[in-house]
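Inverse folding, one chain.
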């Protein structure tokens, strides 16, 4: 158990705005040349892309132990657990839009995404590969639906509703990632 004196010092790499994660010119989320996306679908995809990048940024530069480090007991939450959880959720969202048999869970039983987030490099690599694969698979399936109001799957979810739900899920977990990263090494920022 850490004492208060063991807390990492807060820091950021930003020099322009000291409360930011990175300087605006170095932030990969600002690579659209300042242009806003055109239309609702592009706006939703852009927002999702930014949150996905934020999660990756919060994990950058950490080793397997740091990524697997849990927050405060009894929580099982860790940055690695969040990556695994979001891979599982992306896979499950494919079930929402399918009329077929559901895809199996990536990690097994409930909460296995967090419980299995152990400090092993192979687990880290697999988690990021799983996340990338599941994101790409769902993105490809959703790209076939140009009408955001189209209702799909057994429960007739609107594509728009699923897109907003995805952004909401990533936004919530990026907030967790902010706190987790600060606990690991003191790095703070947007």
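Residues assigned per position:
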């Amino acid at each position: 158990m850490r004492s208060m004196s063991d807390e990492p010092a807060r820091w950021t790499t930003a020099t322009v705005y000291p409360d930011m994660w990175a300087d605006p010119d170095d932030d990969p989320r600002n690579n659209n040349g300042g242009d806003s996306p055109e239309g609702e679908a592009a706006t939703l995809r852009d927002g999702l892309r930014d949150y996905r990048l934020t999660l990756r940024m919060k994990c950058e530069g950490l080793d397997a132990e740091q990524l697997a480090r849990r927050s405060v007991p009894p929580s099982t939450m860790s940055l690695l657990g969040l990556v695994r959880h979001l891979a599982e959720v992306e896979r499950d969202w494919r079930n929402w839009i399918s009329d077929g048999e559901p895809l199996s869970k990536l990690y097994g039983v409930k909460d296995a995404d967090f419980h299995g987030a152990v400090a092993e490099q192979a687990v880290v690599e697999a988690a990021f590969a799983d996340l990338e694969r599941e994101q790409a698979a769902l993105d490809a399936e959703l790209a076939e639906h140009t009408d955001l109001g189209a209702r799909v799957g057994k429960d007739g979810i609107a594509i728009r509703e699923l897109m907003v739900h995805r952004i909401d899920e990533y936004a919530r977990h990026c907030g967790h990632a902010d706190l987790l990263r600060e606990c690991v090494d003191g790095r703070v920022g947007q």
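The CA atoms of residues 138 and 144 lie 10 Å apart. The helical segments are 40-59, 64-68, 79-96, 112-115, 121-143, 159-185.
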